[in-house]
Design brief:
Blueprint: H1 5-10, H2 15-31, H3 37-50, H4 66-72, H5 80-83, H6 90-97, H7 111-114, H8 126-136, H9 150-163, H10 166-171, H11 175-183, H12 190-205
């Protein structure tokens, strides 16, 4: 089934973003066999939620308050004083919070900032960039910035979707289960994701 601009608009994408992403999303769906109306609607809805309507393709780690940093990264910043040096410094913060995890080396390596969350489902960490690159045939390890471009943002999201087994869940309309695959136990924005799914599905059936 072909993907139309109307489906991305129904998911909440502004017109410019919908037009920019319709071809990359269609190509990514074809490559990773996201094919039925339910599968496509769920994929579009989830990626739209994660990317604020296909407008945010890179993680924002610019924090202005120490209290907020402590809340988001409690294991890294046990006190507000420990968080102050990282305020309004996204690269420094990324290197701290993503060091020695997700395949990244230590804080001094710069891997945290290099492999920051990018794309429609926030590909994060050297190991994930390498795995996606191996599957897609692009050296994302060497050129991680590519993941913030529409073509690669869509491809890496579809790769993750397929790898996580989301097609079967979507076909069964288990939208909360796909949310859990993407967002984990937090299930942030579950209601919004369900609403976007229904809106996209209706647009595809019109």
């Amino acid at each position: 089934m072909s993907l139309a601009v109307a489906a991305l608009r129904a998911a909440g994408a502004p017109d410019a973003a919908a037009r920019a992403f319709v071809a990359p999303m269609a190509q990514a769906c074809e490559r990773f066999n996201i094919a039925t109306p339910r599968q496509i609607a769920a994929f579009v809805a989830q990626t739209a939620h994660e990317s604020e309507g296909f407008t945010r393709l890179e993680e924002n780690l610019s924090y202005s308050t120490a209290d907020r940093l402590c809340k988001v990264f409690p294991s890294r910043f046990p006190t507000p004083a420990s968080a102050v040096p990282f305020l309004r410094n996204p690269a420094k913060l990324a290197n701290r919070v993503y060091s020695n995890r997700l395949g990244n080396a230590d804080e001094a390596s710069g891997d945290g900032a290099r492999y920051i969350g990018r794309g429609l489902i926030q590909l994060t960490g050297r190991a994930n960039y390498m795995a996606a690159g191996d599957a897609i045939g692009i050296d994302y390890k060497a050129r991680p910035e590519l993941v913030a471009l529409p073509e690669h943002a869509a491809l890496t999201a579809a790769w993750f979707w397929a790898t996580a087994g989301c097609n079967a869940l979507a076909e069964a309309e288990m939208i909360d289960a796909t949310t859990r695959k993407i967002n984990g136990a937090a299930m942030m924005g579950a209601e919004d994701r369900r609403a976007r799914y229904q809106a996209v599905l209706r647009s595809m059936q019109a």
